[in-house]
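Hi,

Apologies if this is the wrong queue. I'm a grad student, and the batch job for Protein-S-isoprenylcysteine O-methyltransferase from Camellia sinensis var. sinensis produced an output file that my downstream script rejects. I'm not sure whether the problem is my script or the file. Here is the sequence I used:
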Amino acid sequence: MLHRFLLLRSREVFGLFIGGRRWPMVMSFVKHLRDTVGSTYHFVFQLQLLQMFLAIIFFHISEFILAIAIHGRSNVSCRSLLISKNYLLAMICSLLEYFLEVYFFSGLKEQYWWISDFGLVMVVIGEIIRKMAILTAGQAFTHLIKTYHDEEHHQLVTHGVYRFVRHPGYCGFFIWSIGTQIMLCNPISTIAFAIIVWNFFAKRIPYEEYFLRQFFGSEYDEYASQVPSGIPFVE
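Support response: The file is valid. Your script probably expects a header line. Output copied below for reference.
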């Protein structure tokens, strides 16, 4: 009896919503919920892209401005913007992944918003480490590897952030680059950026340190034996 009573009552309530005055209210609520969710998705997507573009613009412009401030305009070229064909291709691929995943798996980008925030934190930390490296080293910091020794400006820097890692500029960029992809919640590009950037520095650091050992001899050997490179698994 109780089962039949509940079944009848449920039918009455359902019929009231479907055929009665409350049906427009239900449809209005569903439409409002759909619009709210849709606007939330759009806000999340716009915020992620805005953070990405601001991070990229700030990084490259600040690198160029600091290079001019430290080395002088006459000694700085557009190469100090640090924009290469391979870099542009990598960024285009990352944006392509982002838009494809937004189209096919839009809920994942919004659902795991905290991952995007973690990426933003990595971007900020990477920027701080790299800019501290530039400001600490001053004229000893260059975007191109020095193959000759300028005794007046090229000194071995071991203080400040260089007490903790030998190549804080590389360390900062490594963190920053991976952070940009985590900020977009791009799983494929995150792994790809980590591998590509790591491989780049794994080759660049030994090449650069060959000249540093030529310039500073045993002083650099002692420093390198006590301080890590700043890139994981790169001695």
